[in-house]
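Objective 1b. Sequence-to-structure analysis of Protein translocase subunit SecY.
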Amino acid sequence: MLSHQQGNEGITGLLNMFAGGSFSRASIFALGVMPYISASIVVQLLGIAVPYFAKLQKEGESGRNKINQWTRYLTIGITALQAIGYLKSQISPEQMLLVNPYFTILNMFVLTAGTMFVMWLGEKITDKGIGNGISLIIMVGIISALPGAFLTEFQSRTVGAGGLVTFIVEIIALIGVVMFTVLIVQGTRKVAVQYAKRIVGNKQYGGVRQYIPLKVTAAGVMPIIFAQALMFIPSTVAQFFPNAASNGILMSLSDYTSVWHNVLFAILIILFTFFYTAITVNPNQMAEDMKKNGGFVPGIKPGRATGAFLDAVISRITLPGAFALAIVAVIPALASMIHISSSFARFFGGTSLIILVQVVLDTLQQIESHLLMRHYDGLMKSGRVKGRTAIPSASGTSEPVI
């Protein structure tokens, strides 16, 4: 039971989701973009711990190109290691003894080439298309499973228990969860920043009040991914040590629908949200950048006092954001408890839903910006897409922000 559960809801289930189902089908693109994501996270953390990478992050376009090159090299190494592990997981130990070593090496190169092709495709989409190419590939892989999950749930409700009314209630609940996720992803705390006036020739620069949008969920989906990685440990231990699998606590933590599993999962998400926000958002650096550009928060001294103020604001808004992420993460388990199929329940929250919402909103903002740069009205005349900016008109005035 534990082995089956881990295959569907454990680390293999997570990898299969990011690969759009290719992992379970053992295709050339079985590893998908997950090695590239892992390499990006490692390089991002190195930018905090290693001075060389921290310097590259401040060098603008040239530094970004070098970081991307290091990410590609690291992706090749991670993919090669994961390819060997993947081959061992697909072949039984008895069969592995009969496999020619050249078979392993050949398939390692094939899987690595598949991941590098997906990475190249994502970078080309980023350069030539709209939005982040890697994120779009992940989103397409996740959303490709939605029609099948939708049909499976519809058939189970119309043929089995519940009926059509229950299915309609589930759809309404799904829409409500999506709306809640959009709110927490888009939620920001605007900090007013005043810039000093500068006179250059006959023109005046600055002297206007702008805002720094501090996101409630600055860590994004990363806390859920980190917490999921740790929550896979009990089921992995139970798989390698069958005698320990009978332990009540271990069984409870391995069952993703149990109370203790979800309580521990929520606590880990809250902790990782604070941790990842602390290492990715640097209020002191923000304060220094404002000071260099002649900006200051009204009523707060520039420099160290501004950094302390921004740190306090980020700490206050991160707490409700962490709790909101924890709620979204445990909703799929709650949906499974009320007998919603596991394939459909994962779209009620967790990693899948947050990635879908973030990528769709980011893509809408990119399209909106491109349209406004060409003096179109944008995607919608009613409503508002956050991220829309004012575009100067031909008369020299600016269009209102919608």
